[in-house]
């Protein structure tokens, strides 16, 4: 490179060369297209002929082409397959907008970025309209058929501020399942309303209607009424209350001087090598702490059947099924995407955010087996449990 040419000038020359090359190749393809159009698609007796070309602009990922030569015929029947008649971009920009929005940028930030790189003004509304093209995908994904059997169904909700007539706190319900092969995926989500047992029941009924009829174990936290709602849809399934949530809720109620010892004693309960030993360990907790923390110990005692339900299942998956950690990490990703918005403008926006996050999760986990579920003894044990509760699979 000559020392008399600056880096900026060199880059400009390179961009012009690339843009010219792209234009030449596009025009070559279109000339071949119209030749094929007359050779194959037009009847021999037609009076239609070529009619030169017209110039148009097209924004590509390599830059803006101002005078692209598009061939035409006299009867206006030829249409290139490279772009739609009124399309002014090759699709890369819309794809980039969706990717940036998917990555966590707000509609305003995306608009400012697009304006900075190509000079065209993109308002937040325009960006929203572009990302809105995925709503059909969202609804199709939400209605897709599900497998019949899932060994584990994790359910959790995330609260966020949603604008309707006014701003109010609403919930996104999410369900994640581990199938018979041990593959984990998000089955669906539902946006709207205050979190309630009624809302959860409606969401679970939707999963059931989409085909997920046989569940062995539901894992969730202790929302009042949720267990009854779950059993109204899946009466044959066990319920596992999230032990981590239970411990987390207990922690603030214990005096500082007792926290380490008290919580350590409880941890020995759910880390016991078997169910009998877990009960024995809890008896020790009850004797030691019930006079000092009677409500907290009683709360654990009442919940023991659902806190220790995981002991019915193969030991290889205990640590995976006694907590909602598997789904909580995904919920944090949704929360991270919603947080910069302060309040989400509408339900469509919330659905787009949730869909992008959950689709990414499913793609990452599509070929992975959840730890412990791939073991032969685990598969056999779970298969036997399915047969005992639901009979031979249809």
TrEMBL record:
What InterPro entries is this protein classified in? Transposase_mutator (IPR001207)
What this protein is called in its record is Mutator family transposase
| Protein role | Required for the transposition of the insertion element.
Q: Which UniProt keywords apply?
A: DNA recombination, DNA-binding, Transposable element, Transposition
Pfam families per UniProt: Transposase_mut
Q: Which domain of life is it from?
A: Bacteria
Q: Quote the NCBIfam families the UniProt record gives.
A: transpos_IS256
The similarity annotation says:
Belongs to the transposase mutator family.
Keyword DNA-binding attached: yes
């Amino acid at each position: 490179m000559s020392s008399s040419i600056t880096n900026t000038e060199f880059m400009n020359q390179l961009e012009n060369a690339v843009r010219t090359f792209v234009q030449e190749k596009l025009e070559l393809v279109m000339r071949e297209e119209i030749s094929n159009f007359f050779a194959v698609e037009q009847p021999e007796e037609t009076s239609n002929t070529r009619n030169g070309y017209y110039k148009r602009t097209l924004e590509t990922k390599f830059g803006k082409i101002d005078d692209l030569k598009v061939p035409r015929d006299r009867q206006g029947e030829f249409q290139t397959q490279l772009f739609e008649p009124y399309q002014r971009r090759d699709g890369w920009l819309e794809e980039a907008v969706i990717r940036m929005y998917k990555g966590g940028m707000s509609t305003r930030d995306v608009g400012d970025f697009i304006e900075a790189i190509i000079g065209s003004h993109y308002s937040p509304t325009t960006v929203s309209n572009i990302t809105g093209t995925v709503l059909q995908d969202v609804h199709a994904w939400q209605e897709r058929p599900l497998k019949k059997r899932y060994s584990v169904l994790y359910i959790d909700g995330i609260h966020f501020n949603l604008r309707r007539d006014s701003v109010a706190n609403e919930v996104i319900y999410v369900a994640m399942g581990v199938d018979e092969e041990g593959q984990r995926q998000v089955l669906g989500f539902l946006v709207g309303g205050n979190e309630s047992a009624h809302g959860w029941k409606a969401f679970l009924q939707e999963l059931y209607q989409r085909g997920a009829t046989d569940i062995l174990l539901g894992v969730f936290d202790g929302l009042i009424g949720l267990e009854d709602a779950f059993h109204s849809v899946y009466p044959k399934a066990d319920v596992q209350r999230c032990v981590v949530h239970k411990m987390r809720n207990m922690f603030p109620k214990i005096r500082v001087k007792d926290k380490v010892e008290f919580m350590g004693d409880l941890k020995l309960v759910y880390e016991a090598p078997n169910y009998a030993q877990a009960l024995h360990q809890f008896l020790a907790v009850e004797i030691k702490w019930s006079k000092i923390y009677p409500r907290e110990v009683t709360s654990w005692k009442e919940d023991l059947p659902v806190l220790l339900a995981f002991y019915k299942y193969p030991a290889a998956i205990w640590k995976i099924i006694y907590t909602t950690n598997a789904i909580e990490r995904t919920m944090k990703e949704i929360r991270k995407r919603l947080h910069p918005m302060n309040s989400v403008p509408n339900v469509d926006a919330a659905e787009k955010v949730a869909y992008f996050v959950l689709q990414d999760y499913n793609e990452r986990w599509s070929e992975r087996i959840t730890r412990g579920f791939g073991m032969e003894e685990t598969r056999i044990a779970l298969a036997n449990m399915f047969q005992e509760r639901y009979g031979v699979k249809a």
